């Protein structure tokens, strides 16, 4: 599906071929060299991850990350229009290399991908070209969060159309669901033997009521429901990630409601919180759970790609953290380490030529004092992590 996935699958195919060849060789030579026994077969280069093997210890490290709001205003999709389609890939090209580095990358897909059949639209009720999804996948996005205040902008038909498209192209989504059965199916992504469960909730849907009896269409913040799902997720995963739509628009720091809710979901079992909705960046911090775990909260990842400008609304980025899993005869442990932030800037000229670029190099795309702004944003996002 993506370059990093294709490398994984190719390696797997080669490993299977080599193993098959090795087995045939052993069968052929067994009568002449009985010394080649089962122990020899188990000593291959691909390390077993069976924690039940006495005396075995292994450690795996992966990086998970998230980007903020993909909020496709009409100026953005008009800029992506081609003769007979849309192409958003050039908008992400300047940051594609950075986005491909994490092992699992989440994006907050703020607008539905209902396509031209439903009629494209921007603010206040969005519907975006489906080619947005193609560009995200091409740039390395592995899963999208779909619970937000615009989930029901085009009603049930809109979100169902968007989910059908994502299912068709193989883009996992979480936060809105096709039916009750789909809602009960936890989204657990595995990389290198580490299972990551993804959950997603929103404070509301801009006053648009959820159709009666169809709560599965969007996850609304409800502590009882969140607690139940978090506990289910912990049973089948090593790490639980919550994507959450909350807070006040354009405020650069979290409010007490966000802080209290963050502590609640961390205490219930969430390890990483990726926040969205304010459209500007809000800081990252460590929270200590009741059971002693250390959890990471990013209160808002801001806008990643949108038509909004100025007052920090055109600055976003990618937050990442390492997941270290160790299995030994004494048990299994999971640790979060090395949180980092990669600031980005949405460049445009006259609401045309939209590009998401590294903030550090944004002076090449018309942003004055980009270096100073880069340092300011890193301080804003990262400094709270060092507060004891």
TrEMBL record:
<dbReference type="InterPro" id="IPR029052">
    <property type="entry name" value="Metallo-depent_PP-like"/>
</dbReference>
<dbReference type="Pfam" id="PF09587">
    <property type="entry name" value="PGA_cap"/>
</dbReference>
<comment type="similarity">
    <text>Belongs to the CapA family.</text>
</comment>
<dbReference type="InterPro" id="IPR052169">
    <property type="entry name" value="CW_Biosynth-Accessory"/>
</dbReference>
<dbReference type="InterPro" id="IPR019079">
    <property type="entry name" value="Capsule_synth_CapA"/>
</dbReference>
<protein>
    <submittedName>
        <fullName>Poly-gamma-glutamate synthesis protein (Capsule biosynthesis protein)</fullName>
    </submittedName>
</protein>
<feature type="domain" description="Capsule synthesis protein CapA">
    <location>
        <begin position="63"/>
        <end position="308"/>
    </location>
</feature>
């Amino acid at each position: 599906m993506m370059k990093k996935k294709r490398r994984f699958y190719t390696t797997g195919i080669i490993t299977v071929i080599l193993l098959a060849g090795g087995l045939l060789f052993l069968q052929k030579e067994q009568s002449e060299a009985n010394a080649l026994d089962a122990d020899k077969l188990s000593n291959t280069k691909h390390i077993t991850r069976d924690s039940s093997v006495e005396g075995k210890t292994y450690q795996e490290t992966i990086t998970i990350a998230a980007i903020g709001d993909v909020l496709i205003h009409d100026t953005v999709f008009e800029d992506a229009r081609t003769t007979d389609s849309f192409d958003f890939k050039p908008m992400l090209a300047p940051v594609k290399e950075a986005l491909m580095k994490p092992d699992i990358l989440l994006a907050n897909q703020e607008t539905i991908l209902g396509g031209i059949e439903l009629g494209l639209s921007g603010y206040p009720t969005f519907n975006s070209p489906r080619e947005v999804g193609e560009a995200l996948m091409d740039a390395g996005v592995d899963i999208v969060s779909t619970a937000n205040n615009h989930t029901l902008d085009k009603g049930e038909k809109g979100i169902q159309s968007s989910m059908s498209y994502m299912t068709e192209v193989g883009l996992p989504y979480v936060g809105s669901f096709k039916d009750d059965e789909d809602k009960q199916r936890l989204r657990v992504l595995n990389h290198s033997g580490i299972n990551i469960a993804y959950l997603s909730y929103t404070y509301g849907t801009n006053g648009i009521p959820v159709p009666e009896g169809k709560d599965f269409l969007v996850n609304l913040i409800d502590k009882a429901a969140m607690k139940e799902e978090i506990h289910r997720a912990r049973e089948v995963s090593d790490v639980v990630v919550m994507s959450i739509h909350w807070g006040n628009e354009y405020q650069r720091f979290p409010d007490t409601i966000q802080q209290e809710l963050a502590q609640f979901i961390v205490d219930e079992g969430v390890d990483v919180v990726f926040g969205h909705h304010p459209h500007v960046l809000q800081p990252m911090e460590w929270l200590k759970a009741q059971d002693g775990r250390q959890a990471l909260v990013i209160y808002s990842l801001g806008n990643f790609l949108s038509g909004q400008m100025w007052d920090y609304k055109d600055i976003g980025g990618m937050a990442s953290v390492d997941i270290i899993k160790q299995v030994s005869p004494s048990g299994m442990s999971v640790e979060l380490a090395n949180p980092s932030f990669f600031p980005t800037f949405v460049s445009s000229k006259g609401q045309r030529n939209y590009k998401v670029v590294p903030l550090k190099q944004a002076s090449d795309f018309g942003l004055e004092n980009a270096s100073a702004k880069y340092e300011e944003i890193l301080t804003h996002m990262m400094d709270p992590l060092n507060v004891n």
